[in-house]
Design goal:
Thiol Ester Dehydrase, Chain A, five-stranded antiparallel sheet, 3 helices
Length: 141
């Protein structure tokens, strides 16, 4: 299992009239978590695109437990629970407030896509190679 965390402060422009983080921004917070998780592995989305790989979202699920509030410092925990060999990757996101209360959970499924060939492709070898050590430890137990 691979886990990365990043922090985001809820900005005023992201809130509704009640001071709650607007529900549509949770997907953006998931994206920030994914981008930083990939960066922690030594890649950026830009580098993947330069390799000829795009990563469109094909499915998004979200479950809300309590609101994130204006000026809260949110911890976005991004988790890869499985390492698939194919063209899809599933990111699990968990958002916590400063009291470490779970606010929201989400699952975002993306595919690796070659825009020139207009088809799904397997995960780039370089990315798979960087993720393997996190999953070998699980499989050796």
């Amino acid at each position: 299992m691979y886990t990365a965390t990043t922090k985001i402060r809820v900005r005023y422009g992201e809130t509704d009239q009640m001071g709650y983080l607007y529900y549509g921004f949770y997907a953006l917070y998931y994206e920030v978590g994914r981008a930083e998780a990939i960066r922690d592995l030594g890649f950026t989305y830009r580098e993947l695109e330069e390799m000829g790989i795009m990563m469109p979202v094909v499915e998004l699920n979200s479950k809300y437990f309590r609101p994130a509030l204006y000026d809260d410092l949110i911890t976005v925990k991004t988790i890869l629970k499985e390492l698939h060999g194919g063209s899809k990757i599933e990111f699990h996101s968990e958002l916590y407030n400063e009291k470490e209360e779970l606010l929201n959970k989400g699952i975002t499924t993306l595919v690796f896509y070659d825009p020139k060939e207009k088809k799904k492709v397997d995960m780039p070898h370089e990315l798979h190679h960087r993720l393997e050590p996190f999953f070998k430890a699980l499989n050796s137990k």
